[in-house]
Amino acid sequence: MKKTVIVVLFIISAIHFYIKYYELSEYNCYTGKIIGFTDVNVRQIEKRGVSYFSRKIPVVEYTNEEGKKLVYEDGTRVFYSNFEINESVKVLEKNNNKYNVRIYSFFYYWIYLIHVIVIFLLTTIISGVIFKFILKK
After folding, report:
1. Among 1, 26, 62, 134, which residue carries the largest CB count within 10 Å?
2. Nearest CA to 108 among 74, 66, 72?
3. What is the pLDDT of residue 70?
4. DSSP β-ladder status, 49-63 and 69-73
5. Which of 76, 61, 75, 66 shows the shortest CA–CA distance to 31?
6. Strands 97-103 and 27-46
7. The predicted structure's pLDDT at residue 97
């Protein structure tokens, strides 16, 4: 069972990263820098009620292919983020939608929180189906 779960997790993860790699061709890459942070308050609904917490959203400045300096805030919910002011980052701007901009890093591009949840759900479901209907016979 353990080998089955590991193989399924590897296959699903490989498919995910292949799709993200293929998606890179839809973006232009620029060099930018972190110019500040915006504090935001997040409202989260839990079983016991509503809780609030704050987090810092990086503010990125970059120059696009037209020579315009652009500034945007990347409010993506991520597992881990420890950017520093004036840190150089790669910025991805979608070819057909100049408003779709992302920081090119592991947690800001390659794997979001929702991706991890979906990967583990699919791994659990597919491993259960394999174990129940294929390996049990």
Report:
1. 62
2. 74
3. 92
4. antiparallel
5. 61
6. unpaired
7. 87
- In the structure, what pLDDT confidence band is assigned to residue 44 with cuts at 50, 70 and 90? confident
Copy the structure tokens of residue 68: 């315009």
Take residue 26 and report the two structure tokens written for it.
């839809």
Give the burial class of 134: count Cβ atoms within 10 A of its Cβ; 0-12 exposed, 13-18 middle, 19 or more buried. Answer: exposed
| 38: confidence class by pLDDT, cuts 50, 70, 90 | confident
Report which of 73, 76, 94 is spatially closest to residue 29, judged by C-alpha positions. 94
Give 87's contacts (C-beta < 8 A, 6+ positions apart): 33, 34
- pLDDT of 79: 63
Amino acid sitting at position 2 = K
Residue 112 backbone dihedrals phi, psi, to 5 degrees: -90, 170
DSSP string, 14-38: HHHHHHHHHHGGGEEEEEEEEEEEE
**Structure confidence at residue 93 (pLDDT):** 92
